[in-house]
Amino acid sequence: MSSSLPAALLERERPGEPPLVYADSGADAARWVAGQRDELSAAVVAHGAVMVRGLALGGPEEAAAVLGALDAAPVAEREAFAPRQRYREGVYSSVKWPPNQPMCMHHELSYTLEFPGLLLFACLSAPESGGATGVADAAAVLDALPAALTERFAREGWLLTRSYNNEIGASLTEAFGTEDPAAIERYCRAQAVDCAWQPDGSLRTRQHRSAVVRHPVSGRACWFNQIAFLNEWTMAPEVREYLIEEYGPEGLPFNTRHGNGDPIDEHTVDTLNQVYAAHTLRRPWQRGDLLLVDNIRAAHSREPYEGPRDVVVAMGGPVRLADCAPTAEVRFP
């Protein structure tokens, strides 16, 4: 470990697991984190993710207090791809996603122009089995991917296409905070999102983003996007087939393309997910655990699970895409 956390609190890293820090048993979570803020922040930058055990976090309000103790301004979610409950500013439930289906690696809100630099995951209830929040080093993933693949995405960026119909995925209100067409159009113009209303009243959007950025603190190049997670080939085959039959190939709730608009083939998505899998670190959740994730340095996932699972996420430390030396310039509509 290159951080300066007290040795007594630190468990040595083990293969396949993120670093683990032990908090003082029974300590007030926010007060303990505030006392270790500089050391924890340095460890998260150095490793991408650190788990803290022993805080016995009990509710969303404690997650919000820990976010404040880390001096991370809360980030409100915009352009959500799936519903979730908002507890308070920057603090949300996990997204509503079938327990038997994995959520593959992604960086939170990496399709927006401003996104959280820090994520806090607080486990209020651990599942009976599975359900780990995996993390993967985005710099190592970039290095491990085929050069031809990363060079094209670095040069062209990537496109995210979405279809909002209030039947599947996030609704307009969940994504934009309103259903007012004029307000949505103003937001899209300000955020470089091309939007078009369909005859049936649904909304389709397209946005161009960089696939590779540099970490604003370390300067390391990172694979930073949701190209694989939001692509049609990551969906379960039966889900993909149903959605295409029901809404057509252009009406999927979300899909990704090369920056020039070309489709992304199944082999490319498989390659991305295989490299992510090879770099995934995970620890089974215990009630009260806190996982700190550098949202640029580390991608995160959620594995299938059985039994009740309650993991709260807090988003903080807003970072602008323009401040991360993106390799592809955003194309404004």
UniProtKB/TrEMBL annotation:
Residues covered by the TauD/TfdA-like domain: 26-314
Cofactor(s), names only, from the UniProt record: Fe(2+)
Keyword Oxidoreductase in annotation: yes
Molecular function as annotated in GO: dioxygenase activity
Pfam families registered for this protein in UniProt: TauD
Record carries keyword Iron: yes
Key words of the record: Antibiotic biosynthesis, Dioxygenase, Iron, Oxidoreductase
PANTHER family hit by this protein: GAMMA-BUTYROBETAINE HYDROXYLASE-RELATED (PTHR10696), TAUD_TFDA-LIKE DOMAIN-CONTAINING PROTEIN (PTHR10696:SF56)
Protein name in the entry: TauD/TfdA family dioxygenase
